[in-house]
Design a protein that fits this description.
alpha+beta
């Protein structure tokens, strides 16, 4: 316990420590020294998705997602993630809404349609962007687009479709 308290104090003092200083601190407690690659393994990993919701053409609502790293910066790279539609503002569950002519990935690439018009495994484009367009003549107001970060499982949820449907 005493050794752990000392290590925590040392780490608190070294919040701006270099990688080699942190490695030295880690090796004191575990006998292991991580490589730079191990320390940086999550660089470029998807931590979240920011969304924009907009009206498309007639009866279409477009959800555009941009992948972000842990610092909130856009990841300008092709990355894979799962995307689904929900009627829950928390992203709890897949939408049961029937859309007039369905939902499609309109930016990025569909790798697999897991559940028709509802759940997709997608690749973003090279800018780290994907878009899902849904067409529904009933223009439901409580549709959300959700994206699951592959490593953490964090679910990012868009704003509601609301009145954002093409005329």
């Amino acid at each position: 316990m005493r050794k752990n308290n000392r290590v925590m104090r040392d780490l608190a003092r070294n919040l701006t420590a270099t990688a080699s200083e942190l490695n030295a601190s880690v090796s004191q407690t575990s006998g292991q020294t991580p490589s730079d690659a191990e320390v940086n393994v999550l660089d470029g990993a998807i931590a979240s998705v920011s969304f924009a919701v907009a009206a498309g053409t007639t009866n279409v609502c477009v959800f555009t997602g941009t992948i972000k790293d842990a610092d909130g910066a856009t990841i300008a790279a092709v990355k894979a993630l799962r995307v689904y539609l929900s009627t829950s503002a928390a992203g709890a569950g897949v939408s049961a809404t029937s859309y007039s002519t369905g939902a499609t990935v309109t930016t990025g690439t569909t790798l697999v349609t897991v559940s028709a018009n509802k759940v997709f495994d997608v690749l973003t484009n090279a800018s780290g962007v994907f878009a899902v367009s849904i067409t529904a003549s009933g223009k439901p107001a409580t549709e959300y687009c959700c994206a699951v970060a592959p490593i953490t499982g964090t679910v990012s949820v868009s704003a509601a479709s609301a009145a954002l449907w093409g005329a």
